């Protein structure tokens, strides 16, 4: 980080502010969680009052050093930059922003999300993804029965409700963002599409940490999709889930098949073969009572983690799941005392592991 | 919902640019109140106030009624404000729950009724059973901004002008004497509150307004309709001649420096003094005009001849 | 009312405070994480208020869509059991409630960065569980906290308090006994500045005393801002710790 920039250079800098700002903002997201951990890693500039990762509140002066570009969560007057939200200060290159502790989900390209169809419109679906505005899923961004190479015809437009209708849940990826920040989705991969055989849990989006993989196979033949938007789907593992699993789960007792294929490397021929009407089926497979119990247990465990405001990650879910085995009755898990003790258990076991 | 009036972007920019140069569309100075014209009607308590193009009529009427049980010594006094599309397309017919309508009626209510401008105890006829029920109906005939200011003047002038029929009480029996039989009596008005409305505009960015030092906000008195539509904040001050602040309302809008708000209150006092005098002059002229034959009718004349 | 001594010669008020003392102030945020995007619970003396913020979200109806900025709405629910005597009406369409709602919307419209959220709506609900004077100021504080909890960008805190004038002495933060006995002024200040976003004088105050009343009010709001700020930081710290462990 260059400490001093001459005044003349700064003028130039101002004029480019907007253009550059956008660029930096877009790649900011991927480093988000990384930044918080980075606290104290940066050297301090003279005149900078707030370190990376320190908490600021609205209206608070962050810095009066003019070299910083103003990112999200800030506003400025002359040389002074103020915070507009409660959050942690983040510095990436020369971009200064404040990451709010909690806010509605802000979509970013590449996010794996879970959403609900709210509206079927002209060649598009409106999807509630818990963001500021509904996301759009274009008819052209979904796989239709009959394979990818098939052309979309007028009949497809007329029977959009046969694919996805109001109330359906689906998981998808954010394909791109519009000018106003709303998202456009796509489901052009086998891991995306309509959701079945399970239950839905909603947690604050700030508790889900963006990572490479958001679909996890958990012990007990369960698959969980941790949507970045805080929408979570817990379901009975399907054959595809098991064959796609790549990451070894944190616990040794995972009973799924060893990872054989990468989800990303599904060949086009395979895709074609799978893209049958079945992917838009509304019928659940048979789910046994014991699997239903396990799904409920996971759902309640996740609620407990959210109650304790703990970040929700795969190891934590498993750790809390194991701790929850002490309670025979699944319904007992959502009593507030139990939830708090579960949260404590998770933190304790993390500390133990860290110490070991 | 009634359609709001909209100003084109270029015109709003033009008005704001002019305001920055302390120029207003109608050529007034920033702190100049429009000339107030008070017309008194044939009947007692019929007043029309004109300020520029704004026109408000107030009519007072009364009837005998029963007082509230918890206030046996007080008469009843209601102010009703009726906004109709007559005043402008932005008002809706028969629906008085719009933001603007509620604010106007609450403001007049606070300025006149709650401040005790009218001596309600003077409306009592027999404690606990009979009293005068007084109604002030405010009609907005035309709107070019400043409705609150104009209606407050109208209501107060009407109250000063109004005369209620004389009554005689004999035990429980009450006789109301028609106006043509016996000279009616004036109401007891304790003080004359006058509203002055300031409008604020922010010439700079919001950041400057919140964090800046130099308080460059523009404030103007008695905005016209166009200025009202563009303003960022509004302050209504109600004062009387005794240097009492009856009511101040700055319900949100542009944050303003405390000292400049106080300064506004002091500016308002000058205007209030002037308007109060004008109201009293109008009332006086009217009573002289009504009694122009008094010297002819007087019995003194007859004896002299 | 006359049996109470509103302000004793020794300088004590009905509840034992001095002229420049606030009532006890407690607040917490994120009290209803499942029901709303932002929430707060606030106690200012015996005032108890729950505030919920939902949004920015897709507007419920087409007519609410504003392409330039978010549309803000405030609904006040003054519960029937909020006062000593149970009230018969729900206060919902009372002019006073409508006026408060409008005032609160207009206050926060200028303090939120609504232009960042075009085509969305932000809805604020205020539930008054218990009412004891200076409610408008308390509502300002509650809404500020809930909006911050929702992560909605704002320029600065808005904090509110009421001040009364007893003879010539200004009294800070009135309870309802005092509020009924004297004229009161409600002040809403932006951050630590001397800029007033809201100023309501409801009864007669001598023009020349207004300045001293406002001065003590501004000092009171700054103090409340600090108390809210402290709570936010405390909450933020535990949150960050839990998340990054």
TrEMBL record, chain A:
Keywords: Exosome, Nucleus, RNA-binding, rRNA processing. Residues 198-239 form the K Homology domain. Residues 104-176 form the RRP4 S1 domain. Its main location: nucleus. Pfam families: ECR1_N, KH_6, S1_RRP4. GO terms for cellular component: cytoplasmic exosome (RNase complex); nuclear exosome (RNase complex). This is WGS project CCBQ000000000 data, contig 00012. It comes from Kluyveromyces dobzhanskii CBS 2104.
UniProtKB/TrEMBL annotation, chain B:
Keywords: Cytoplasm, Exosome, Nucleus, RNA-binding, rRNA processing. Residues 32-165, 191-269 form the Exoribonuclease phosphorolytic domain. One of its GO terms (cellular component) is nucleolus. CDD domains: RNase_PH_RRP45. One of its GO terms (biological process) is TRAMP-dependent tRNA surveillance pathway. InterPro entries: ExoRNase_PH_dom1, ExoRNase_PH_dom2, ExoRNase_PH_dom2_sf, Exosome_comp_Rrp42_subfam, PNPase/RNase_PH_dom_sf, Ribosomal_Su5_D2-typ_SF, Rrp45. It is found in: Cytoplasm; Nucleus, Nucleolus. Transmembrane segments: none annotated. It comes from the Eukaryota. One of its GO terms (molecular function) is mRNA 3'-UTR AU-rich region binding. Pfam families: RNase_PH (PF01138), RNase_PH_C (PF03725). Belongs to the RNase PH family. This is Exosome complex component RRP45. It comes from Kluyveromyces dobzhanskii CBS 2104.
UniProtKB/TrEMBL annotation, chain C:
GO terms for cellular component: cytoplasmic exosome (RNase complex); nuclear exosome (RNase complex); nucleolus. It comes from the Eukaryota. Its main location: cytoplasm. Residues 21-152, 156-219 form the Exoribonuclease phosphorolytic domain. GO terms for biological process: exonucleolytic trimming to generate mature 3'-end of 5.8S rRNA from tricistronic rRNA transcript (SSU-rRNA, 5.8S rRNA, LSU-rRNA); nuclear mRNA surveillance; poly(A)-dependent snoRNA 3'-end processing; rRNA catabolic process; TRAMP-dependent tRNA surveillance pathway; U4 snRNA 3'-end processing. The keyword Cytoplasm applies. Component of the RNA exosome complex. Specifically part of the catalytically inactive RNA exosome core complex (Exo-9) which may associate with the catalytic subunits RRP6 and DIS3 in cytoplasmic- and nuclear-specific RNA exosome complex forms. Exo-9 is formed by a hexameric base ring of RNase PH domain-containing subunits and a cap ring consisting of CSL4, RRP4 and RRP40. Keywords: Cytoplasm, Exosome. The keyword Cytoplasm applies. GO terms for molecular function: RNA binding. Belongs to the RNase PH family. It comes from Kluyveromyces dobzhanskii CBS 2104. This is Ribosomal RNA-processing protein 41. It is found in: Cytoplasm; Nucleus, Nucleolus.
């Amino acid at each position: 980080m260059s400490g001093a920039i001459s005044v003349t250079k700064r003028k130039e800098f101002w004029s480019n502010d907007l253009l550059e700002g956008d660029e930096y903002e877009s790649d900011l997201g991927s480093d988000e969680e990384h930044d918080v951990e980075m606290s104290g890693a940066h050297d301090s500039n003279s005149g900078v009052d707030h370190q990376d990762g320190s908490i600021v509140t609205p209206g608070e002066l962050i810095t009066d050093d003019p070299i910083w570009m103003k990112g999200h969560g800030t506003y400025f007057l002359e040389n002074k930059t103020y915070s507009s939200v409660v959050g942690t200060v983040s510095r990436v290159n020369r971009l200064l922003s404040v990451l709010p502790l909690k806010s509605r989900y802000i979509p970013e390209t590449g996010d794996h999300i879970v959403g609900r169809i709210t509206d079927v419109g002209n060649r598009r679906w409106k999807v509630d993804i818990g963001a500021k505005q509904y996301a759009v899923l274009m008819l052209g961004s979904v796989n239709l029965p009959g394979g990818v190479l098939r052309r979309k015809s007028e009949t497809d437009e007329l029977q959009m409700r046969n694919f996805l209708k109001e109330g359906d849940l689906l998981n998808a990826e954010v394909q791109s963002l519009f000018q106003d920040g709303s998202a456009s989705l796509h489901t052009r991969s086998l891991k995306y599409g309509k959701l079945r055989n399970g239950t839905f849990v909603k947690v604050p989006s700030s508790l889900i940490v963006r990572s490479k993989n958001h679909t996890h196979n958990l012990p007990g033949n369960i698959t969980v999709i941790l949507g970045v938007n805080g929408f979570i789907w817990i379901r009975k593992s399907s054959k595809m889930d098991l064959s796609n699993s790549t990451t070894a789960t944190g616990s040794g007792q995972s009973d799924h098949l060893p990872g054989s294929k990468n989800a990303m490397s599904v060949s086009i021929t395979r895709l074609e073969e799978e893209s049958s009407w079945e992917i838009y089926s509304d019928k659940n497979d048979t789910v046994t009572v014991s699997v239903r119990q396990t799904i409920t247990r996971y759902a309640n465990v996740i609620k407990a983690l959210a109650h304790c405001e703990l970040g929700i990650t795969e190891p934590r879910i498993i750790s809390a799941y194991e701790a929850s085995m002490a309670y025979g009755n699944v319904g007992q898990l959502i009593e507030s005392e139990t939830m708090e003790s579960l949260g404590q258990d998770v933190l304790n076991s993390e500390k133990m592991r860290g110490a070991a | 919902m009634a359609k709001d009036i909209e100003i084109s972007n270029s015109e709003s920019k033009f008005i704001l640019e002019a305001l920055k140069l302390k120029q207003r569309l109608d050529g007034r100075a920033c702190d100049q109140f429009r000339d107030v014209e008070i017309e008194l009607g044939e009947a007692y308590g019929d007043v029309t106030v004109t300020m520029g193009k704004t026109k408000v009529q107030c009519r007072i009427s009364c009837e005998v009624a029963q007082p509230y049980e918890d206030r046996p010594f007080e008469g009843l006094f209601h102010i009703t404000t009726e906004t109709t599309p007559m005043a402008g397309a932005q008002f809706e017919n028969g629906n008085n729950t719009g933001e603007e309508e509620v604010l106007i009626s609450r403001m007049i209510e606070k300025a006149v009724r709650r401040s005790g401008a009218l001596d309600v105890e003077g409306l009592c006829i027999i404690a606990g059973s009979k009293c005068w029920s007084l109604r002030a109906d405010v009609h907005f005939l035309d709107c070019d901004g400043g409705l609150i200011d104009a209606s407050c003047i109208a209501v107060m002038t009407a109250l000063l002008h109004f005369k209620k029929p004389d009554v005689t009480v004999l035990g429980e029996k009450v006789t109301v004497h028609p106006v043509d039989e016996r000279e009616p009596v004036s109401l007891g008005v304790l003080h004359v509150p006058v509203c002055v409305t300031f409008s604020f505009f922010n010439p700079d960015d919001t950041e400057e307004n919140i964090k800046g030092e130099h308080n460059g906000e523009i404030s103007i008195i008695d905005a016209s309709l166009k200025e009202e539509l563009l303003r960022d904040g509004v302050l209504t001050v109600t004062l009387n001649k005794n240097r009492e602040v009856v009511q101040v309302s700055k319900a949100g809008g542009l944050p303003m420096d405390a000292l400049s708000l106080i300064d506004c209150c002091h500016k308002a006092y000058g205007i209030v003094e002037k308007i109060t005098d004008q109201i009293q002059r109008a009332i006086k002229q009217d009573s002289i005009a009504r009694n122009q034959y008094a010297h002819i009718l007087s019995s003194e004349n007859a004896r002299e001849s | 009312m006359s049996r109470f001594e509103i302000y004793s010669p020794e300088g004590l008020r009905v509840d034992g405070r001095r002229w420049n003392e606030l009532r006890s102030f407690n607040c917490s945020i994120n009290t209803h994480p499942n029901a709303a995007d932002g929430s707060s619970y606030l106690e200012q003396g015996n005032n108890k208020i729950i505030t919920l913020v939902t949004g920015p979200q897709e507007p419920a109806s087409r007519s609410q869509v504003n392409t330039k900025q978010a549309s803000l709405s405030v609904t006040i629910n003054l519960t029937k059991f909020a006062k000593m005597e149970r009230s018969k009406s729900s206060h919902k369409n009372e002019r006073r409630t409508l006026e408060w709602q409008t005032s609160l919307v207009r206050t926060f419209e200028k303090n939120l960065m609504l232009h960042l959220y075009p085509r969305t709506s932000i809805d604020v609900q205020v539930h008054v569980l218990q009412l004891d004077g200076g409610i408008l100021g308390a509502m300002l504080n509650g809404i500020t906290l809930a909006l911050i909890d929702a992560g909605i960008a704002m320029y600065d805190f808005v904090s509110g308090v009421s001040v009364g004038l007893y003879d010539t002495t200004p009294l800070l933060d009135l309870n309802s006994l005092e509020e009924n006995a004297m004229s009161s002024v409600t002040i809403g200040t932006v951050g630590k500045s001397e800029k007033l976003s809201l100023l309501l004088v409801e009864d007669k105050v001598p023009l020349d005393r207004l300045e001293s009343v406002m001065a003590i009010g501004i000092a009171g709001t700054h103090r409340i801002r600090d108390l809210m700020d402290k709570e936010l930081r405390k909450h933020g710290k535990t949150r960050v710790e839990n998340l990054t462990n």
